[in-house]
Specification:
Membrane topology: Single-pass type I membrane protein
Structural class: alpha+beta
Number of helices: 9
Main location: endoplasmic reticulum
Keywords: Disulfide bond, Lectin, Membrane, Signal, Transmembrane, Transmembrane helix
Distance between the termini: 97 Å
Oligomer: single chain
Largest sheet: 9 strands, antiparallel
Strand content: 15-25%
InterPro entries: ConA-like_dom_sf, Intracellular_Lectin-GPT, Lectin_leg
Subcellular location: Endoplasmic reticulum-Golgi intermediate compartment membrane
Radius of gyration: 42 Å
Number of strands: 16
């Protein structure tokens, strides 16, 4: 057996610390150089083949296509007969030209709208704009957005049927369970066998939820619901800004299984408390995965709808022909002219509106001029009367008396008022001249947009000057007249003393006052107890 040598060579040689540092620095430099080389390589590849990276960047975003048969939006939301194209409404729903009021702010109301034809999209996205407004601090009951296998036209779940087969997105505004977790947005699925848990606000059945206050907002609240690759996502725009794309994430449900074919619907209900539930728009988009072509849009519409539209077109055409005949009978001098010449164009309508506005301004200025002339006549008569009074007093009174000086002050004031009124009248005359010139130019060939605006600005400026001058004259005249009246010798009148009033006797004793306070307190507490009982009774349980 060989023995291990003992000595310096038997142990490993440890390099000095400086050598270790140099080795680590060299390794770090090599790694940094490799990273930089890889970055440069990737940059060159991206510059040479940009479409590869572009496809990867947008590879997960689906393609969207708007589907008008499952959507509605104002204005002209309804037809002449009050119906919504491609939709039906039931219950207390009230369609109008710019929105659909699902339920009015009355107690125990229910309403809904549903698509007529079923939806067979594999992936879809719905954008809903609505308002929920009411007077009270709390509202009821709420609004629901549906995608179900059948039309739940009426029922106890926010105005729609219970035991639905599909998914519902609930905007619950009433706190049934008393946990103060409302208003809230809930996603609840159902296979057609479950009953909705009203007493717990559906919290035991919800697949996703978020707390959002959607009542009494300055702008419409918007909800974006996306079903893509078996994932249901809900985004909410709180309605604080007019930005339509300012969405916030609410909730997402993965592995969501819904019917392959279903109907879109919106429903709402009220209970002991009531809100207005208004839907402004409901837009549906078909989604397709990247690389998958969308199916061609339906070119043929159902025969019933086609016949209905054809009948409406024929009725409109008959009414138009009837009106043309009536117009030809009333205006035989325009027979034989092209139809286009019988109706005014957009430019002619604008010029006519400008001329009508100028004529109204002209009449108003004339009326103001007549009123100023009447004021001038009254001021002249007033000055003449004062002048005669001064002449009479000057002939009777001695020189240097105070009334003569006061009357001269009044005359000077009235003369200044006359001068100001003359200036106002001159300004009005200038405005009338400018208006007449503008009308002559318009009759000659029509006013340009810049000249029209400039002309109206000049008229507006003159009218403002007239208004300020009249207000200044009225204020100065009233103040100086009051001063002149105060300065007149009325010392004999001031010496007359008013009779003293008899002392008033107390009509309410202390005992009566205390009894009154006690009765009022009892009535107040009784009203508070009655009000609390009414609020407790108004708490709804479906």
């Amino acid at each position: 057996m060989r023995e291990r040598p003992v000595g310096p060579s038997a142990f490993p040689v440890i390099p000095p610390l400086s050598a270790l540092r140099q080795h680590s620095d060299s390794n770090m430099a090599v790694s940094i150089a490799k990273c930089l080389a890889s970055y440069v390589y990737i940059l060159l590849i991206s510059l040479i083949f940009p479409h590869v990276f572009a496809d990867n960047a947008v590879g997960d975003s689906p393609h969207r296509r708007f589907e008008y048969k499952y959507s509605f939006k104002g204005p002209h939301l309804t037809q002449s007969d009050g119906r919504i194209p491609f939709w039906i409404h039931t219950g207390n729903a009230i369609p109008s030209s710019d929105q659909i009021r699902i339920t009015p702010s009355l107690r125990s109301q229910k309403g809904s709208v549903w698509t007529k034809s079923p939806v067979s999209f594999e992936h879809w996205e719905a954008e809903v704009a609505f308002r929920v407004s009411g007077r009270g601090r709390m509202g009821a009951d709420g609004l629901a957005i549906w995608f179900t296998a059948g039309q739940g036209l009426e029922g106890p779940v926010y105005g729609a049927a219970d035991q639905w087969n599909g998914v519902g997105i609930f905007f619950d505004s009433f706190d049934n369970d008393g946990k103060k977790n409302n208003p809230a947005v809930l996603v609840v699925g159902n296979n057609g066998k479950l009953f909705y848990d009203h007493q717990n606000d559906g919290t035991t059945q919800s697949l996703g939820t978020c707390l959002r206050d959607f009542r009494n907002k300055p702008y419409p609240v918007r909800a974006k619901i996306t079903y893509y690759r078996k994932s249901l996502s809900v985004f909410i725009n709180n309605g604080f800004t007019p930005d339509r794309d300012d969405y916030e994430f609410c909730t997402r449900v993965e592995n969501m299984i819904i019917p392959d074919t279903g109907y879109f619907g919106i429903s709402a209900a009220t209970g002991g408390l009531a809100d207005d539930h208004d839907v402004l728009s409901f837009l549906v988009f078909r989604l397709a995965e990247p690389g998958q072509n969308l199916p061609p849009p339906e070119k043929e519409i159902p025969k019933e709808e086609k016949d209905k539209y054809q009948e409406e077109f024929e009725n409109f055409q008959q009414e138009l022909d009837k009106r043309k005949e009536e117009f030809q009978k009333e205006h035989p001098d325009v027979q034989g002219q092209p139809i286009e010449d019988l109706f005014e164009s957009v430019n002619d309508r604008e010029i006519r509106q400008v001329f009508e506005g100028q004529n109204r301004i002209h009449l108003e200025i004339k009326q103001l001029n007549r009123q100023l002339a009447m004021i001038l006549d009254e001021q002249r008569r007033y000055v003449s009367v004062i002048t005669e009074e001064i002449s009479k007093r000057s002939s009777q009174a001695q020189s240097g008396q105070a009334p003569t000086h006061e009357m001269e002050t009044i005359i000077n004031t009235q003369q200044e008022v006359l001068r100001n009124l003359n200036e106002v009248r001159d300004s009005l005359s200038g405005s009338l001249k400018q208006l007449a010139m503008g009308q002559q130019q318009g009759n000659a060939g029509g006013l340009g947009s810049y000249e029209t605006v400039q002309h109206f600005n000049d008229i507006k400026e003159h009218l403002h000057v007239v208004k300020r001058s009249i207000e200044h004259i009225i204020q100065k005249n009233v103040v100086r007249r009051d001063i002149d009246i105060i300065k007149l010798p009325i010392t004999p009148l001031l010496k007359v003393k008013c009779p003293e009033l008899p002392p008033l006797t107390a009509c309410l004793s202390t005992t009566h006052f205390v009894v009154f306070i006690v009765v009022q307190s009892l009535l107040f507490f009784g009203y508070i107890m009655y009000k609390s009982q009414q609020e407790a009774a108004a708490k709804k349980f479906f």
